[in-house]
Design brief:
44% of the residues lie in helices and 9% in strands. The radius of gyration is 25 Å and the shape is globular.
Length: 366
C-alpha cells in the first residue's frame, strides 16, 4: 500500500495555545478516503486528533472539512486523488471549515453559525387554514421543483466555502437560503410572499449573495445553493413584484432592461436605474430613489474625475452588433405564459420541445 502524508491543523482552546500543524504518515489504498486516513492516524499515532464523523458514506454530512484549501466531505474524498491534487512531495492539507468557530482541531461549531442561520428562515411549513383531517396529499409533479433543495444533508460545506459570509458574517448564507426555497416552493406552504418579502428586505438576506459559485462547486449533493437563491429572487421580483429597500427588484429590472436594449451592460446607467424600477426615468422621481441618487453623487463625481465615466458615456451606449437577435430571444421568453425553469437536477423534468426551441434560437444567434 502507498504511504500518504497528512498535514492537519490542530487547535485545542482549552490548552490556551495557538493553532499549530501536525503531520502523519498513513499506509492506505488509494481508493480509501481522507477520513479513513485521519482515523488511522488517530488510532495508531495520536488519539487526541479531533474529527467529527458518523456514517462514512456521504449521507450524514458531519465530516466536512477543508482538504487542500477546498471544502469537502472527508469520507467522500479519495486519499489518492487528494494526494494528486496536493502535488508531488506535498502533504494533504486538512483544516476545519471557514466561517465557523473551531471547537477542536477539525471540529467546528455548527450551532453557532450554520444551524442558527437555518433557524432564521423558519424551516418548517406554515400552511394557511385548518389542517386536513388526515395527511396533506400533494401531487408528485408539484414537488419536483424543490427536490433539489430537499437533497441537502446540512453538511455546511457551502457555508464554509461562502465568500460572501467571509466578508459579511451576518449574511444568512447559502445553506439557509436553499432551505428557505424548500418551503417557498412547497405548495402546502401558505406564507410564500411573506417569506420572500422577509428575505428580500433583510439587508443581509436574499441580495447579499455575490454569485461566486463557491457553494455550487463544493456541494456534495448537487443542491447548488446559489441556484436556489436565484430562484428565490425570481419568485420575489417576477412572481410577486416585491420592491425591497435593498433595491434588489430595481437592480434586476435595470440589468435585464439594459441587456435587452443594448445587448451589453450600460454600467453608467445600472446604478441610477437600480434605485427606481429599472427604467431610465420612471420610479427615479420617487422620494426614496431621489434620496439614494443624492447619496451616491460622490461616487458619480469620483467616476467623472477618474475618467471611468463621462457625460457622453452616461447618456449614450452603443448597441451590440446583431442586437435584434438578442431582442428576439427576449421576445420569445416573454411570450411564454409560464416561466421556463431548466431544472437539470431531475432527469427528464424539462419540456424537451421548449428547451429545444430555446436552444435553436441561441444557436442561430451565434
Amino acid at each position: 500500500m502507498p504511504e500518504y502524508k497528512l498535514k492537519l491543523r490542530r487547535y485545542d482552546p482549552e490548552s490556551g495555545q495557538p493553532a499549530y500543524w501536525s503531520e502523519y504518515d498513513v499506509d492506505l489504498d488509494a481508493e480509501r478516503s481522507v477520513l479513513q486516513g485521519i482515523l488511522t492516524a488517530r488510532d495508531d499515532q495520536d488519539g487526541s486528533i479531533g474529527i467529527r464523523c458518523s456514517c462514512r458514506a456521504a449521507i450524514c454530512g458531519s465530516c466536512a472539512v477543508r482538504i487542500n484549501g477546498k471544502t469537502a466531505l472527508a469520507c467522500n474524498t479519495a486519499i489518492g486523488e487528494a494526494a494528486e491534487k496536493a502535488g508531488d512531495g506535498n502533504p494533504i492539507v486538512v483544516e476545519p471549515m471557514n466561517n465557523m468557530p473551531v471547537i477542536k482541531d477539525l471540529i467546528v461549531d455548527m450551532d453557532a453559525v450554520h444551524w442558527k442561520k437555518v433557524q432564521r428562515v423558519v424551516p418548517w411549513l406554515l400552511p394557511d387554514g385548518d389542517p386536513p383531517e388526515r395527511e396533506y396529499v400533494v401531487p408528485a409533479e408539484s414537488m419536483i421543483d424543490i427536490t433539489q433543495s430537499m437533497a441537502c444533508i446540512q453538511c455546511g460545506a457551502c457555508v464554509g466555502a461562502c465568500l460572501s459570509m467571509e466578508a459579511n458574517p451576518d449574511f444568512i448564507g447559502p445553506a439557509a437560503l436553499a432551505k428557505a426555497y424548500r418551503f417557498v416552493g412547497d405548495p402546502r406552504d401558505g406564507q410564500e410572499r411573506e417569506r420572500l418579502k422577509d428575505l428580500a428586505e433583510d439587508p443581509d438576506g436574499l441580495y447579499t449573495c455575490t454569485h461566486c459559485f463557491a457553494c455550487v462547486e463544493v456541494c456534495p449533493k448537487d443542491v447548488a445553493p446559489m441556484n436556489q437563491i436565484m430562484r428565490l429572487r425570481r419568485r420575489a421580483t417576477g412572481d410577486f413584484g416585491i420592491k425591497d429597500r435593498n433595491n434588489g427588484y430595481g437592480h434586476e429590472k435595470a440589468f435585464v432592461n439594459l441587456i435587452e436594449k443594448y445587448g451589453t451592460l450600460h454600467e453608467a446607467q445600472l446604478l441610477p436605474r437600480s434605485f427606481g424600477d429599472g427604467s431610465l426615468l420612471k420610479g427615479q422621481t420617487e422620494p426614496g430613489a431621489v434620496k439614494e441618487l443624492i447619496e451616491n453623487l460622490p461616487t458619480a463625481i469620483r467616476g467623472l474625475k477618474s475618467g471611468k465615466v463621462s457625460p457622453v458615456k452616461a447618456l449614450w451606449h452603443h448597441k451590440l452588433p446583431g442586437q435584434e437577435n438578442v431582442k428576439r430571444i427576449f421576445d420569445e421568453v416573454h411570450a411564454k405564459e409560464d416561466r421556463l425553469e431548466l431544472n437539470l437536477y431531475i432527469v427528464g423534468e424539462g419540456n424537451d420541445e421548449e428547451i429545444g426551441a430555446m436552444a435553436e434560437i441561441a444557436k442561430e444567434d451565434v
